[in-house]
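In this supplementary section we document a worked example of the pipeline. Step one takes a protein sequence of length 166 as its only input; no multiple sequence alignment statistics are reported here. Step two produces a three-dimensional model, which step three serialises into C-alpha cells for compact storage. The input and output of this example are shown verbatim.
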Amino acid sequence: MKMLSKYKFYFLIILFCLVNVHSANSSTIPDEFHGNVTRVIDGDTIYVRNEKLGIVKIRLADIDTPEIKQPYGMQAKKVLEKKIFKKKVKIRKISIDRYKRVIGIVYKGNLEINHFLVINGHAWCYERYSERPIIKIAESIAKRKRLGIWKSEKAIPPWEWRKNRK
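The serialised model returned by step three reads:
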C-alpha cells in the first residue's frame, strides 16, 4: 500500500510540472514573431518553426476555409501551400484558443494571408470570431466577383458542414 501512494505522489508531481510547463509555454509566445512554414494542415491551419519557440501551430484568425473533405477544401489548402509553404512568415498573435493553437494573422512580406484567402474566394469571413470589417468587406467582394467558393450557389460554410457531419 505504501508503494502505491509513493507512485501516486510522483505521478502528481510529474503531472503538476507538465501542466505548469505547458501553460508557461503558451504564455511566453510573443505578440509578434517570425518563422518558416513547415506544414500546411488545411486552408486555415499551419505549423511554423520559430528559432526560439520551436514548432508553433497557427490557426488563421477571422477566417474559415472549407474542410479537406468538403468541396473546395483541397483547393484552399493548395492555394495556401503555394503562397507560404517553406517560406518565412510573420505571425501577429491575436489569442490562444482552447486547443492551445495561436490564433493569428499571417503575413508573407507585406501581404496579409488571411485577407488574401477571403478576397480571392478561398475562405469565409468567420463572423462568429472576426472583429475586422476588412475581412467582411473582402468576402463581399469575392462573392460579387463569384471567385473560388462563390462560383457555386450552394457553397456551405464550414461551420455548418461540420455541424451536419456530427
